[in-house]
Design a protein that fits this description.
Blueprint lengths: L2 H31 L13 H24 L3 H28 L11 H31 L3 H29 L6
Keywords: Membrane, Transmembrane, Transmembrane helix
Protein name: DUF420 domain-containing protein
Amino acid sequence: METSTLLTKEKNANRLINVISVAVPIVVAVLLGIRQKVDLGEWTTYLPHINGVINSITSVLLVVGYYFIRQKNVPAHRATMTMAFSLGAVFLVSYVLYHMSNESTPFGGQGWVRPVYYVLLISHIVLSVVVLWFVLRAVYFAWTKQFVLHKQMTRWALPIWFYVSTTGVIVYLMIRPYYTH
């Protein structure tokens, strides 16, 4: 393929990744900020519990995917990481559906656990916004067989993504007693 065509494709991919990385958090924030909730039914009250399971599975898949690549088992790594990425997309939809249709649950813990909860929650939220760009770039580099760049990007993407999915589970377990359903 011609060099200028490759550069154009690369530039377009970078632009798309940047737009998605900015647009998704903005759209989620806007949807979460809507005060008028949409009645999607009682089933949505189970979504936080499902999201806890999704984050748990994602954390395991990230570790397993890392193991597979360390063993040079590229097909198993690719399949595992594709599952983790897909679960991330399912989580995002589920998270938005829950918050569009249900009020946020306040944390009821007191004492030392309260600041611990909020430190975990805030770091989880901030890094969940940041990690999207890294993950999208890592996936793009893998799909386009730019494995040196993929490896460089995953040095950041993997630990941040693992932290976000794991703290998602911890935050869920800490707030779980305060859900009404």
